[in-house]
């Protein structure tokens, strides 16, 4: 079933209303949809590189707005909607322990989930559930999703289709390594 959903999402990139499809997928991916918007975004930018940054901007705005829906699910409907979504993603059992530490590192949690392959929807729901300050959530979401979408757009705009394999297979790893190095650097500075 997931493969069919993936194929259907990919086919939206060819549709004449692809920008609207990207906006919808970016919105719902931030709160419950399992397929990331990159699946639509990458072929759209390869087909029309002159629109790379417009496409990234639409993904950013829609993703942050969808993140607010995820935040709302966590804040107002965690028991009925949020918990089943997180359980379906295999994150249900660790929620109580995670919630106690979440707001201490909330900025970093949103940043990491926003730019790495970690499911952003988990963090949006958790942010609402743990009552993370909404301003912190919004600013961090804009920063994280902006980095992710605009780096992909810039790479595709600059290098075109040959960079596609790197983006699809290794960019998530590169983002993750960047975050690990960044956090490690902060830890070293804190200790010294």
From TrEMBL:
The chain crosses the membrane at residues 20-40, 52-78, 105-123, 135-159, 171-189. Residues 54-155 form the VTT domain. The keyword Transmembrane helix applies. It comes from the Bacteria. GO terms for cellular component: plasma membrane. Keywords: Membrane, Transmembrane, Transmembrane helix. This is DedA family protein.
């Amino acid at each position: 079933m997931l493969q069919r959903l993936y194929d259907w999402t990919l086919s939206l990139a060819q549709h004449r209303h692809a920008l609207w499809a990207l906006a919808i997928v970016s919105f719902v991916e931030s709160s419950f949809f399992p397929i990331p918007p990159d699946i639509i975004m990458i072929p759209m930018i390869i087909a029309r590189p002159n629109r790379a940054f417009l496409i990234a901007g639409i993904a950013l705005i829609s993703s942050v707005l969808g993140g607010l829906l995820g935040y709302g699910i966590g804040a107002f409907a965690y028991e009925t909607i949020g918990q089943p979504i997180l359980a379906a993603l295999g994150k249900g059992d660790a929620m109580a322990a995670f919630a106690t530490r979440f707001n201490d590192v909330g900025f970093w949690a949103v940043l990491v989930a926003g730019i790495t392959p970690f499911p952003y929807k988990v963090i949006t729901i958790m942010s609402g559930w743990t009552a993370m300050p909404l301003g912190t959530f919004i600013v961090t979401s804009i920063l994280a999703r902006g980095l992710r979408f605009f780096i992909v757009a810039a790479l595709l705009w600059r290098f075109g289709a040959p960079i596609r394999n790197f983006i699809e297979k290794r960019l998530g790893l590169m983002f993750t390594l960047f975050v690990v190095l960044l956090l490690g650097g902060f830890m070293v500075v804190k200790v010294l």
